[in-house]
Amino acid sequence: MTSAHAVVVVRPEPGNARSAAALRALGLDVRQVPLFAVTSVDWSTPDPTGFDGLLLTSANAVRHGGAGLDALKRLPVIAVGAATAAAATEAGFAVAVTGSSNARDAVSEARDRGFARLLHLAGRDRNPTGDGVEPIIVYASDDLPIDAALARSFAGTVVLLHSERAAARLKDVLDTAGVDRSGIEIAAISAAVADAAGSSWAAVSIAPQPTDPALVALAAARANIRAIDHPVRGGDKHAMSDYVPTDRPRARGPRMGVIIALTVLAFIAGIALMAYATKTLPWTGATRPTAAGAAVAGQKQAVGNSGYIPSQPLGPDGEPQANAPVDTTVLATREATLAGQLTALEARTAVITSDAAAAGGQATRAEGLLVAFAARRALDRGVGLGYLEEQLRLRFGQAQPRATTLLIQAARQPVTLEDLRQGLDAIAPDITSSTGENWLDTIQHQIDTLVVLRKAGTPSPMPADRLARARRLLAAGQVEAARAEVARLPGAGQAGNWMDAARRYVTARQALDVVENTALIGQAGQPQPAPVVIPAPAVETTAPDSDGI
Questions:
Q1: Residues 77 and 163 grouped into a single domain
Q2: What is the pLDDT, as a whole number, of residue 322?
Q3: How far apart, in whole angstroms, are the C-alpha atoms of residue 429 and residue 202?
Q4: How many degrees, rounded to 5, is the angle at CA 447 between CA 441 and CA 452?
Q5: Residue 239 lies in a domain
């Protein structure tokens, strides 16, 4: 026959053994009846770059995930429960968020911290977690058979429930076996688990925290209470609680003299107590040292002159109370939460640092392009570079020293397309005819130009046609091609200055192209601040007299 204060653990292994051991350490009668068996499921590891974090709702995902977990360790973990967070940390994951209630709340908290796309390593039977979460099955909890005799043995016990699925399964098992649930008490790890268990139980208790140690402590307390309330002496439920007095006090009438005497005595006693309290109690301002006063004086001396006196709770008698016991489970949970938050901050800091470095590189590239474009505009307008000359040296002097030098030199004698067009018009009569020939050569040249044979589609070699082509090329900005046409004219020797100006124009534009390409590929340098030059202090000197003294 099962004892009235037996505790039943129905969670699967290996958690079943841990909970049972903790209960036995408290001196309780424990029975292990796992309702499920957890097994691994074959799965393929997805690409981790498509996710911001890894959602773990059970430590079973870490235990049964297998070798595929190694490829996902770069993802921060959003864990539901301190036990899941501890298992993930032990496996080498970085826990960023530790949820304390359920998966939906943990996902909501993760989204508030910037984790939008989550990969959920889940069991085959899982609860919905919301949008933006992609589940992948890595383990399964299979039902274990529970016969009717084993189900009836749950009567009069306290059953620990660690999950909603365990609560639903326990209810179905008992209902199938026809067991009355009014004689069974359950201890649930959360309110959601208690709701899944339904009603009609002898009592339903919820752990103050969703952790196994808190649930074990609750079950132990409930089992001890059931043991105290267990019927004694053949089912006499009131053997220890109902007390019926045998004699009734005899009623007496009031006596005025006794009442007055008692009133006077009470007044005198009150005065005496007030005088004693004035001399002894610390809150009355007395100078007599007490234990509480000594403790406060010690605290004042410890803090020195800082002006801060730590408060200490006092009991009804004015004496300091002992500190409350420290719950190591709560501390461990808080430490894991803080560690996860610190890891998330470090990850966010690394991302921000990387983004800042990339933004700095893009800003440097944009600044280099602006300087190059401003230099091109200045050359096209035929004005000097001014302050742009120093900017070109700072940004492109190391990457492209030759192009920078050529560009600066060309800008000191700027040449524009309009200058070249006007210059070509001015020298057109001189370059279309040969002035150095004698009258026989001139006649011969005129005879040769009377009839010209050329292939169809080839440009005309006539000087007038070449000059027209040179003008069209200048209008289109093709200075190099126009320069080549002028070089083929009969009087090209008279166009020395124009040819030199066209060469400087072409050289400057080629240097601009090199500088712009350097800025585009991100090789432009970042200008450093000019060093601060501190002038040396002036030293006064005394000039000698005219006599040299």
A1: no
A2: 58
A3: 119
A4: 120
A5: no
Q: Is residue 479 part of a domain?
A: yes
Which residues partner with 143 through β-bridges?
A: 36
- Three-state DSSP at 136 gives strand
Per-residue pLDDT averaged across 286-313, rounded?
Answer: 49
Q: At what angle do helices 496-520 and 479-487 cross, to 10 degrees?
A: 150
| Domain co-membership, 371 together with 429 | yes
pLDDT of 83 higher than 60: yes
- The reply to whether 98 and 197 lie within a common domain is no
Range of 477's domain?
A: 367-445+460-520
CATH, residue 194: 3.40.50.10090
**How many domains is the chain partitioned into structurally?**
4
pLDDT at 434: 63
Phi-psi region of 254 (alpha: psi -120 to 50; beta: other; left: phi over 0): beta
Q: How far from each other are the two terminal CA atoms of the chain, in whole angstroms?
A: 127
Q: Are residues 60 and 154 in the same domain?
A: no
Q: What is the pLDDT of residue 437?
A: 52
One domain, residues 107 and 136: yes
Q: What are the structure tokens assigned to 470, written together?
A: 């040179």
What is the average pLDDT value for the chain, to the nearest integer? 77
Both 176 and 126 in a single domain?
A: no
Task: Considering only the C-alpha atoms of the chain, give the largest distance between any 2 of them, rounded to a whole number of Å.
Answer: 169
For residues 517 and 513, give the distance between their C-alpha atoms in angstroms, rounded to a whole number.
Answer: 6
Distance CA 175, CA 158 (A): 17
Mean pLDDT score, 2-28: 84
The rounded distance, in Å, linking the Cα atoms of 97 and 268 is: 66
SS3 content of the chain, % helix, strand, coil (to 5): 50, 10, 40
Q: How far apart are CA 165 and CA 483, in angstroms?
A: 88
User: Helix 328-381 and helix 401-412: axis angle, to 10°?
Assistant: 40
- Paired tokens of 441: 């050569």
- For the cut 80, the answer to whether the pLDDT of residue 244 exceeds it is no
